[in-house]
Amino acid sequence: MTFAEALETLQLLPDWESRYGFLIELAKVLPPFPEAAKNEANFVKGCTAQVWMTGEFTEEKLQLKLASDALIVQGLLALLWLAFNGKSRAEITAIHLPELLAPTHLLNHLSPNRRSGFAAVTYRIQELGTRN
Hints:
With 132 residues, the chain is an alpha+beta fold. The chain is 49% helix and 12% strand.
């Protein structure tokens, strides 16, 4: 599934219960996160749920891994993975996620804590794009 397909699906589903169910299913697209990498260095602060992230550039493309202990958060991370994984530094810094998500109204339906955590992970990913 692509990021565009995920956004389209979110827009087409009839209600928020269905959309949350889709996010839980979407969580399955994330590649496995190594247990050994669930450490303080990879822990993302600012999230209510526990979230871990690693990212490195291979052949100028981001290889992103994300994990959470909460299913809906894992689905939100899957959206981020679809948006950013495999992208170049220039592509990462050019992505304006709130604009892309606006038609889905997703951010409006997240609790303030989830919205804050989602922003923290997004910021950390985009920060990777600015590092040399």
